[in-house]
Amino acid sequence: MRTNDSDRGRTTGQLRDFARTRDLFEIPRGIVYFDGNSLGPLPRDAVEKVRRVMVDQWGHELVLAWNTAGWFAQPRRVGDRIARLIGAESGSVTMGDTLSIKVYQALASAIEMNPQRRVILSDVGNFPSDLYMAQGLISSLNQGHQLKLVTPERVEESIDTDVAILMLTEVDYRTGRRHDMARLTAKAHARGALVIWDLAHSVGAFPVDLASAGADFAVGCTYKFLNGGPGAPAFIYVAPRHAERARPALSGWMGHDKPFAFTKHYVAASGVERMRVGTPPVLALAALEASLDIWDQVDLDALRDRSIELGDLLIALVEGCCSQLRLVSPRVACERGSQVSFAFDRGYAAMQALIARGVIGDFRAPDIMRFGICPLYNGEEDIRKAAAAIDEVINGCVFSRPEYQVENAVT
Ligand SMILES: Cc1ncc(COP(=O)(O)O)c(C=O)c1O
Is the dihedral angle over the CA atoms 341, 346, 352, 355 positive or is it negative? Predict the structure, then answer.
């Protein structure tokens, strides 16, 4: 699943050595951070960047900043920077809203583009919000659509000529299992289906190549590996071949062809701009831009190679000391994203005990301990510290202590 030479322009960057990049992030001393697949850490420069946007632009230029500081064009500008990370054509990505909203938009447009069929195929490993959005849209449409869920292993054989839309998250949020995007997209197209990829756990984890895979739509968030901050805006990709005919279901004024003409009737803007909905989150996008100043430099192939080394090492060390933990991520590195997950029936309490020891990962019900790996700030020392802490917590039954049984709202 590595990119071929002709694609490398998209994935290469000067930053191939990650020994010093941890200093670009605000990570408290003594903390080993393995939760960048949930919320990436704060890029140090983001604080000053957002301050400047607040004071110099919002403060001094007031409403004029929509023009003078380029706020209006910001979603497109940031979208183009995301495009490099996901192998998308320039001008095919825009920003805004949350990922759930972008899933809804992509699905609503895709359903209209395949009007004879009624099956939306997904898998049981998809993120629940994607499935909930599909269920809600199906109810609103009331046209007999059906959400069909199969196991990840059965997706490929389930793509038949009834399928209108194949809607998948490339990397399973719990196990890290990665689908073969190019193969599944090709099969779906051969059977007359359109494909939507959720890249929440892909972007910033490894090179993605939407254009060469021929994806129809893609969506993703920017608060995980991209370090855009809590609630950072999502992105949506529409393949250029569809962009003039995909009808935006959420026809807000910012996706209008001429928003400031204030006409009474909606006319979709040209291209992916039509997927904008309302006023863009300027401050949140500014924080994301500070992180993209780092990401613009990153050689994604080198990042992926390092992520695999670190993931393999974590698996070897944990399996070497804790037979109680069962690896649920694929052992073969190219079949997983940038996370390693273990099942353990006391996983929630064990993760709380690790966090108390400065090793921050997270837990996903019913029994999965997740460790997201980002070579920009995780190195071999982190992996060794995490493995030692896991050894202590599991083999010393530290997880049984009462203080680790208290359930927080966010796990
Ligand atoms: C794969 C996937 N899809 C969708 C979502 C929902 O994203 P949001 O809360 O930004 O709508 C998440 C959140 O973590 C996710 O991991």
Answer: negative
